[in-house]
Each structure stands twice: as structure tokens, then as C-alpha cells.
């Protein structure tokens, strides 16, 4: 990330603030979020996708400040629960610039969306059509998109692939359920179908699957035009743009993605005799991920015959991704220059299971010891937003850094917070 700088004594500055200073001021574990980096990444999207709606996918990480920053930069928001929606709206986020997703939206999700006047709702299943239509107040019409499964395999891990048939999301193009749903939506006077949506999956690093998706969806737009005489004005191709978790790994080239998707869309529509629909993209990880760093303190070091286990004060409760998806990170020692040769270690968490490993077989100086500070870069997306309260360990705070200043955005979850929810006997 652009605003990360090496300092003397092996310290690292993020947003102009040394990580050692942040650890001393705010304690550990702590999530550090670089406001300048978030904003720069938002701008890169707007440059790559001019004349498009860029929605930040709140599921990657949301807090009030984050909602405020992305709105200031000119992005909309993709939410998938009443919780994300309400939080954003409390910051003054215009509901009209918010899209609601979800394969199983609860009555509360739908009620909240309709009450707050969310811009678009993405219909994910046949049963949702009548349920949503019944909830829309008489005399009004809710704008909807329909989530189409285009039958394309892409994405970093089987658990985050959503473009292939036969899974829980969306309406399949191949078996005709998308076409069937579209006919039904067009027959609902309280729903106004404005476009198609698809989301292929997450941590995708090549452009090609998106071009295939655009081709298939333009084909469907043409068939809808033929069959129903309706020209849908919007096309939402979801998010999923991959980032590099370790030096040397691939990441999505956002500028290339934008240029090639727009060219494909323009060409396909021209060939089909359709006007070019307004494009929407929904990046989450590529905005938040590289903007965050997780900071931990080493609590113990255990050397067995074969392995060195470096145990830190966080773990799978604040970052479940290695355990869930086998993702590999590149932790580093900060704030102390060591002359010891690097040795392979396992950075493990404090939780009560052997699988609580944040990074296995990573090089750290051989003299790593309790009290050392460990930074895990690319920790801004799907870490805290997926954090649990396992072992009744409180969730870490989020500290924003910008222009040499640091401030708490979300405070640390205290033991009192945890016990406060428990009603007792
Ligand atoms: N739009 C929709 C409809 C989505 O379901 C998602 C992510 C996104 C956009 C944003 O995708 P992104 O640009 O962040 O890849 N927990 C997993 C990732 C799950 C992604 C879920 N949906 C992980 O930690 O890798």
C-alpha cells in the first residue's frame, strides 16, 4: 500500500504513524485502517469505471467512518443485512445509493429496506418475488434487479465461488429459472425490474471471467427485449476483485478490468442492437483489504524439535480466514531490528484449538520473543467483519490513521460488553 513506509529500527509507518506508537497507545490486538489508502482505492475505481455506479461491498468491513469515507469519495454501498443498512444510514448515507443483497433476506431486512427507501433490492430467488411485492406499500414501486447465475467458475476458493449453477445463490440461466423469474417480476405492479445482477465469486485475479459474464448477461438482455419488449437500463456485475496477500502474489488490475469490461459491454450491446446499460460494480476486498493492518503482540514462543510456535494475543476469533480458506499471510516483526537469521515459524493464536494458526511456515527472525510486535498486512477485509467472540475474547478495536494522526473508530470490545448481553440465571 502506498502510504506504508519503512522507518528506522525496523518500524513501519502506516498513514504516517509508526506501528510501535499505535501499539503503545491503543494496545493489541488492534486493526489499523489507513484512511488515505481507502480513499485512493475508491478513486482508482471511479477512474477505471467512469459513468458507472461503484458500490463498496460493506460485508468486507463496515463502520460509520468507512461508510462516510466511501460516500465522500462518490461511491454507493452494497449491503446484505438490516444491520449494515441501518449503520450506513445513521451516517447520512443516501438510501437511494444503497443496494440490498441476500439469498435469504429476513422480514426485518426487507422491512428496513422499504422503510428507509433503499435504492435497489436484488431478487435472489423465485419465492422472494411475491414476498417482496407484498411488502411494498400500495401506490409505490420498488426498483429491483434479478441475480442471475451465469454458469462461470471463478474465484480463489470453492467456498467463495458463486458463479456456478447448483449453489444457494441466484437464479440459473442454464435451467431457465432466471428467465422464469423475470417474467414473474415483470408481472408484479409493485416491482420495477431495472436490470440484471451477477456475482461470480471473490478473490478473482483475472479479467476473463467478467468478460464471459458480460457476454452471457447481454445475451439475456437481448432475449428479454425480444420476448417482453423491455429494455433493462442497468447491469451489475458484482465484485470479487482479488488482492495480493503476500508479496509477489497476483491481484486484479482494476484499470484493465474497467477498460475491458466496458469495451465488451459496448461491443456486445452494439451487436445486439441494445442501448448500453449503466454498469454497476461492487468491490469490497480490493478497497478495504490492503488498507488494513492487524497488529499483535507475541505472548509466548514454543520450540519443539521440528517447529517454532509464535503465539500472539489474537487469532481465529479476529481472523478466521486461514482456518476457513487456507489463506496464507506474510506476518512481519516490527519495531525491533534483529540480526538473527530468519527461521520458519507458525504464528498461532490464543484460542483453544490446534487449528488456530494465522500463518504456517513463515520466516521470522530466529530470536523472536514474547513482547515482540507482529504486523499482518492486508487485514482490512473479511477479518473484523467475520470476527467471532470465541472463548469470550473481545473483538479488537479499529484505529484509523491519516496524515500522521490516529483515532479510534470502533473501540475494543470489553469483558463488560460481553457480559452485558448475558441475562443470567
Ligand atoms: N457483491 C456481492 C453480491 C457479494 O456477495 C460480494 C462478496 C461482493 C460483492 C464483494 O466481493 P469482494 O469484492 O469483496 O470480493 N469471506 C470471504 C469473502 C466472501 C465474499 C462474499 N461476497 C473471504 O474472506 O475471502
TrEMBL record:
EC number: 4.1.1.20
InterPro entries noted in UniProt: Ala_racemase/Decarboxylase_C, DAP_deCOOHase_LysA, De-COase2_N, De-COase2_pyr-phos_BS, Orn/DAP/Arg_de-COase, PLP-binding_barrel
GO biological-process terms attached to the record: lysine biosynthetic process via diaminopimelate
Annotated catalysed reactions: meso-2,6-diaminopimelate + H(+) = L-lysine + CO2
EC class of the enzyme, as a word: lyase
The protein's required cofactors: pyridoxal 5'-phosphate
Residues the record lists as binding pyridoxal 5'-phosphate: 240, 282-285, 382
Binding site for substrate: 285, 321, 325, 353, 382
Active site per database record: 352
GO molecular function: diaminopimelate decarboxylase activity; pyridoxal phosphate binding
Keywords: Amino-acid biosynthesis, Decarboxylase, Lyase, Lysine biosynthesis, Pyridoxal phosphate
Pathway: Amino-acid biosynthesis; L-lysine biosynthesis via DAP pathway; L-lysine from DL-2,6-diaminopimelate: step 1/1
Residue numbers bearing the N6-(pyridoxal phosphate)lysine modification: 59
Span of domain Orn/DAP/Arg decarboxylase 2 N-terminal: 36-288
The protein's role, per its UniProt record: Specifically catalyzes the decarboxylation of meso-diaminopimelate (meso-DAP) to L-lysine.
Subunit details: Homodimer.
Family of the protein in this entry: Belongs to the Orn/Lys/Arg decarboxylase class-II family. LysA subfamily.
UniProt protein name: Diaminopimelate decarboxylase
Organism per entry: Streptomyces paromomycinus (Streptomyces rimosus subsp. paromomycinus)
Amino acid at each position: 500500500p502506498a502510504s506504508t513506509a519503512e522507518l528506522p529500527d525496523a518500524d513501519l509507518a502506516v498513514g504516517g504513524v509508526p506501528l510501535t506508537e499505535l501499539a503503545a497507545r491503543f494496545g493489541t490486538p488492534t486493526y489499523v485502517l489507513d484512511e488515505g489508502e481507502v480513499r485512493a482505492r475508491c478513486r482508482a475505481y471511479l477512474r477505471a469505471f467512469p459513468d458507472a455506479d461503484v458500490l463498496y461491498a460493506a460485508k468486507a468491513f463496515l463502520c460509520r467512518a468507512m461508510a462516510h469515507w466511501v460516500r465522500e469519495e462518490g461511491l454507493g454501498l452494497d449491503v446484505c443485512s438490516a444491520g449494515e443498512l441501518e449503520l450506513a444510514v445513521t451516517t447520512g448515507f443516501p438510501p437511494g445509493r444503497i443496494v440490498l443483497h441476500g439469498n435469504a433476506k429476513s422480514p426485518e431486512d426487507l422491512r428496513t429496506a422499504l422503510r428507509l427507501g433503499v435504492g435497489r433490492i436484488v431478487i435472489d430467488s423465485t419465492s422472494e418475488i411475491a414476498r417482496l411485492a407484498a411488502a411494498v406499500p400500495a401506490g409505490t414501486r420498488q426498483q429491483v434487479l434479478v441475480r442471475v447465475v451465469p454458469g462461470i467458475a471463478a474465484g480463489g476458493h470453492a467456498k467463495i465461488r458463486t458463479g456456478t449453477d447448483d449453489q444457494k445463490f441466484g437464479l440459473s440461466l442454464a435451467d431457465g429459472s432466471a428467465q422464469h423469474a423475470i417474467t414473474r417480476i415483470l408481472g408484479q405492479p409493485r416491482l420495477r425490474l431495472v436490470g440484471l445482477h451477477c456475482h461470480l465469486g471473490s478473490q478473482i485475479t483475472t479479467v476473463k471471467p467478467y468478460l464471459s459474464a458480460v457476454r452471457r448477461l447481454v445475451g439475456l438482455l437481448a432475449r428479454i427485449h425480444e420476448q417482453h419488449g423491455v429494455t433493462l437500463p442497468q447491469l451489475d456485475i458484482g465484485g470479487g476483485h482479488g488482492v495480493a496477500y503476500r508479496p509477489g502474489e497476483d491481484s486484479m488490475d482494476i484499470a484493465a478490468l474497467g477498460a475491458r469490461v466496458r469495451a465488451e459491454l459496448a461491443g456486445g450491446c452494439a451487436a445486439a442492437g441494445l442501448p448500453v446499460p449503466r454498469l454497476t460494480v461492487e468491490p469490497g476486498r480490493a478497497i478495504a483489504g490492503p488498507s488494513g493492518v492487524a497488529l499483535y503482540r507475541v505472548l509466548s514462543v514454543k520450540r519443539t524439535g521440528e517447529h517454532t510456535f509464535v503465539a500472539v494475543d489474537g487469532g481465529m476469533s479476529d481472523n478466521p480466514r486461514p482456518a476457513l480458506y487456507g489463506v496464507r499471510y506474510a506476518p512481519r516483526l516490527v519495531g525491533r531490528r534483529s540480526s538473527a537469521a530468519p527461521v520458519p515459524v507458525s504464528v498461532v493464536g490464543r484460542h483453544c484449538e490446534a487449528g488456530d494458526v494465522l500463518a504456517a511456515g513463515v520466516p521470522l527472525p530466529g530470536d523472536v520473543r514474547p513482547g515482540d510486535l507482529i504486523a499482518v498486512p492486508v487485514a482490512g477485509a473479511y477479518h473484523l467483519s467475520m470476527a467471532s467472540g470465541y472463548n469470550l475474547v473481545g473483538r479488537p478495536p479499529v484505529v484509523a490513521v491519516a496524515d500522521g494522526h490516529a483515532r479510534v473508530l470502533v473501540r475494543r470490545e470489553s469483558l463488560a460488553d460481553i457480559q452485558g448481553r448475558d441475562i443470567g440465571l
